[in-house]
Amino acid sequence: MSFMQRIIDFFSRKSTVTKGGGDKAISKQKAGGKMTARERIAALLDEGSFHEYDLFVEHKCQDFGMGDKELAADGVVTGSGTIAGRPVCIYAQDFTVAGGSLGLMHARKITKVMDHAIKMGVPIIGINDSGGARIQEGVNSLAGYGEIFYRNTLASGVVPQISVILGPCAGGAVYSPALTDFVFVVDQISKMFITGPEVVKTVLGEEISMEDLGGARVQAETAGNAHFFSNSELECFEQIRTLVGYLPDNSRNKPAIIEQKKPKASYKIEELIPKDSKIPFDVRDIVRALVDDSEFFEVQELFAPNAIIGFGRINGETIGIIGNQALFLAGVLDIDASDKIARFIRFCDAFNIPLLTLMDIPGYLPGSDQEHNGVIRHGAKVLYAYSEASVPKITVILRKAYGGGYIAMCSHHLRADFVFAWPTAEIAVMGPEGAANIIFRSEIMAAENPEEMRKQKVKEYTDKFANPYVAASSGYVDAVITPEETRAAVAHALQLTRNKQEARPDRKHGVPPF
Amino acid sequence: MSEQQFSEIALEGGTYETCVTKKFMQRKPYEKHDPRIIKALIPGVVAEIGTQAGNAVKKGDTLMILEAMKMLNRIKAPQDGTIKAINVAAGEKVTKGQVLIEIE
Fold first, then answer.
1. Do B22 and A368 make contact, defined as CB atoms within 8 angstroms?
2. B7 touches chain A (CB under 8 A)
3. CA-CA distance, A396 to A35, in Å (whole number)?
4. What residues have CB less than 8 Å from B48, skipping those under 6 apart?
5. Which residues of A touch B88 (CB under 8 A)?
6. pLDDT tens, residue by residue, A94-118
7. Domains and CATH numbers, chain A
8. What is the ipTM of this complex?
9. Chain A: nearest CA to B45, how far in angstroms?
10. Which of A82, A327, A462, B103 fits a disulfide with A49 by CB distance 3.0 to 4.6 angstroms?
11. Which of B1, B11, B96 has the CB atom closest to A330's CB atom?
């Protein structure tokens, strides 16, 4: 072959493979409102920054007539590029090639780029769009999944792992996203389930659509497997770019400190808190009144809305924010909220992101469904995660801080570095009504007008105990501050804790109540 | 987010005005377990029925074989008694929680 022929041959090979599954499959993909794998990568990463590897990888399967079948790039595009100038590793399954099915070489391409991300200490992003295991490749396909799951576990807490579900992700395949840190879904496009509607129908006789069983909304709102919900692929990519901006490249680094901005003047923190501690309000407005440019990037907005989690910045530094949301279920802790909070704490702790907790908790949700589904072990995750976290931990008690909930939401007892309380804080063993009913039971029962007596005793208890000063008198609150002073107090606490070091007992690893 | 309608929920410390979630609305009230009512613990197909209404049974007697998840599961009498009713037929597909047999 002459030199020219070699060059022509190269371009011809490259052009064949980069066409993926061909024009027909591509137009089918687009008819479903979906982009192709390469278009997705191009749209997500900085323009022109993508470098592809393993383009010429081929499958090795000879069974079931696969021997003479060519699968372009074996159905997955892998490589690296940049997001806002920072390198990331990425792979995108190509549904136009054999339905994005995962065979041995397909999996090897993925694990290669994952190994790369771990070694180089950069985030790994996986775009999932696959019909599942490539059945013709049998157990080799399963081996491929296993290798991916193993790497997800190795990479956990080492580099940020992001999963993007842009098509089906079913059966065993769901467990790679489940092992990663953040899962993004797009309405009408993402489908995730262990067993699909057909199996559910055969086995259970239940008729349920793919969308209702494991669509984007179900995953984001009900199951809690997804962290970010959007209405289009482009919106989803914008969310990913924003998220990456808050994170460090790996667990050895801290997130970049960017130029600081003041919160927007429209958020007047002193006016946001209702006078009565039983009146609901949106705690996210308090967050916006505290963080730079009033930018709060919420995680799992739709799931367990009685707790809020997300990222923001104070004086340019990334912080993880956790808050009880009185707007929903009065802000109680329950199974879902506990899972949501605990996982987020562990992520922030792994990646050197300080925690700011905004406490306004009336307690745990009562009920047989909560008890029987294990609110004890799920709730324990919050205690474990907060206690274990060695990043800076700053707590602001806004209003209610009752009972076990007070301890759990990063109290001094779980080693918060700073606990601030507003004058509106009510730190007590339980709410005044419950407490008065127990402590003054006999007096209330013996009274001529028990209801009147009950009211009087509730007031007595409220006046004496529903404030921050009892806790402050024992040093459980470091400072009682006004809402207006809060941003400065938190900013100073962050400055002071920047080089915090905290020793832990030597051990292989703890045993959290998973 | 679920419906943004305010309602009240009662907690240990008192009653609060707040929004409730879809999941909260869908909670099922607790039902006390009655050992005389035998329910399918997993969905499956009734493979064989080894008794009939009116029969006296002893605790541990196999009453029915339920094929589920590729296993032939023996459904045994939880206590001594008489079969009051058999609510399913051989070959019938049953869902989780469906009442199979009642004993009195």
1. no
2. no
3. 44
4. B64, B65, B90
5. none
6. 999 999 999 999 999 999 999 999 9
7. 3-246 (3.90.226.10), 269-431+467-496 (3.90.226.10), 432-465 (no CATH)
8. 0.79
9. 9
10. A82
11. B11
